[in-house]
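Final report, Chapter 2: Outcomes

The project's central promise was a pipeline that accepts a single protein chain and returns its three-dimensional structure in a standardized token representation, suitable for archiving and comparison. That pipeline is now operational. To close this chapter, we reproduce one record exactly as it appears in the project archive, with the input sequence first and the structure output second.
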Amino acid sequence: MSDILVVDDEIGIRELLSEILRDEGYSVRLAENGDQARRERARARPDLVLLDIWMPDTDGITLLKEWARAGQLTMPVVMMSGHATIDTAVESTKLGASDFLEKPIALQKLLSTVGRALRRSENSPLPELSLDSLGRSPLMAELKQRLAQLRATRGSVLLVAEAGCRAELCAQYLHTANTPWVTVEDPRMLVTAPLDLAASANEGVLFIPALTQLARAEQKGLALLMGRADRHRARVVIA
């Protein structure tokens, strides 16, 4: 069952799209503004995002740029608008949007666009990105040297980076080949099964993104997990 995130400030449109998509068997999450969309994206990567361009707090183009800079544009995004120009549609496509829907959205157009975007995503995996692919500047060489020193230890690591930086690339540099790599896509797992997460990363790396967005209960689960990670020789990397 594909998971679709619908982002639109108009409640009528959110409810209509949600009803149609759920009737077709999709799992649907809703966000009424950019802030809610950020939280939903941080909690778990959706399989597809339907993103309205014109919203009062953060417009869809800005949010699209933000996800692209942060390396979070790992799912197809279909832009929606009733007032966009051709230039806006072209700009969103250049930024990484997979398609564009003009409001009012016809039922068959919606379903065909969603289906096409999901199929295209399944058949066209994104290219892998690593620190080694980002060049050989002196700053990059220094970063790799520090990470190599950390890799020789077994302790947990907190990565502090500016917004938009790909912290997971640093976490991947700490990972040893042929050992588990586990990303906590859904932070609710920190509440329901923190010890299972530690066990699943036995001898490997457990990566936990978006620390600042964890709820209090999830933070308590993280503390419990970190207290038990040593038993499994799992390195916890938090960003």
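Archive annotation: The chain has a mean pLDDT of 88.
This record, like all others produced under the grant, will remain available to the consortium after the project formally closes.
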